[in-house]
Amino acid sequence: MTGKAPDFFLLHRASRGQILLLVALVVVLPPLVLWLAELAVGLVAGERARGLLHWGLVTGLLVLLAVEAGKDLLPLRGRRLVLAALLAGVAVGLLYWRWPPLRLWLRYLAPAPLVFALLFATASPTAQLILPSRTAGKAVPVRTDPSRPLPPVVMILFDEFPLQALLDSSGHIDARVYPHFAEFANQATWYRNATAVSGLTEFAVPALLDGLADADLVIGSRYVPGGRTVNWSRSREAISRGGNTYVRLALGVPVHDGTAGYRAYRREVLEELPVEAVRSNGYCFQIEMVHKAWQEGFRVVEVPITFTERASGVSKMSRQIVAEALLRVTQWALTGGRRRARRHHPRSVAREAG
């Protein structure tokens, strides 16, 4: 975990020596404690007791390994996952006890922790905090084109940035330690809880902000010309496209991707919509918000984005979410959901434009 997310070490301002010391403790200390426990039992209770303890420790480690593997390979969670891991660990443990080739194979794997430690220190993202920097002392020139006018909006994304490391005890940027960051935050709009989860975010965010120039709600859409999905199965895309088509036909909302969560609202929309009356959960929440905005006369536009499937984690999609969206959209369509309260809301940019 710490290999993939070096934020932990940055947050605690760990030095190179402290990181290596932690790696050494994790690699050496657990097997050393287990070996000393076996040695003590052997001296006190005899070799047979030591062998039973050794088998119990190996079986326990196999159970823990089965739990971690089951999280990725099985749909089980909670007690069922623990029970399945326990059965698998005990089964392999018995095989380890009865079958010498398995014991020999595991003996050959004994240096594996050292290999993992080496990979952690040389090939993981955290390795950048351990290995000497190749670009230290080399300034990177900033190239600008004086003939081109400055853009109206400049957004800077600090991806995988350890926010807590910048803050003081009051939750503000520590101006004493980080004066330039503090000055930057005071002169700009700081989205402190925003995250960038894709390499394409730096292209999608400016498109959303540009869209707000003449729209009240901008949706990053997968299903308009230029939009696409990456690493999605055909069945999942068919379900998503079919659901959004049903929303568009049933409610009359001129939106092709009403379930998209990548969107930007003007403040006036959130101030005028009865947000507290929204009762939907899951992806239906996104549909209800765009539906209410359209009914109240706000302008909704879509900009194309490339949506990449998550690299880790579990999808929140479920049968209950699909059923809720289908029932609520049908209910809205049958109770006047296709009618708009007004063509242009008084606070809409469409009205301001003429």
Keywords:
354 residues, two-stranded parallel ribbon, extended
Explain how this protein is built:
The chain is mainly α and 354 residues long. The chain has two domains: 7-130, no CATH class; 196-352, no CATH class. It is built from 14 helices and five strands. The protein has helices spanning 7-11, 16-45, 47-73, 79-98, 100-108, 112-122, 127-130, 179-186, 201-211, 234-251, 267-272, 284-295, 319-334, 349-352; strands at 217-221, 228-230, 263-265, 300-304, 306-308. Strands 3-1-4 form a three-stranded mixed sheet. A two-stranded parallel sheet has the order 2-5. The chain is extended, with a radius of gyration of 28 Å. The protein starts with 6 loop residues before the first helix and ends with a helix.
What is the CA–CA distance across the termini? 54 Å
Number of strands: 5
Number of helices: 14
User: Strand share of the residues?
Assistant: 5-15%
Q: Please summarize the sheet with the most strands.
A: 3 strands, mixed
Estimated helix fraction? 40-55%
Query: Measured on Cα atoms, how large is the radius of gyration?
Result: 28 Å
Low-confidence stretches: 135-144
- Helix and strand content put the structural class at mainly alpha
What is the strand arrangement across the widest sheet? Answer: 3-1-4
Chart the SSEs and their pairings.
Elements: H1 7-11, H2 16-45, H3 47-73, H4 79-98, H5 100-108, H6 112-122, H7 127-130, H8 179-186, H9 201-211, E1 217-221, E2 228-230, H10 234-251, E3 263-265, H11 267-272, H12 284-295, E4 300-304, E5 306-308, H13 319-334, H14 349-352
Parallel strand pairs: 1-4, 2-5
Antiparallel strand pairs: 1-3
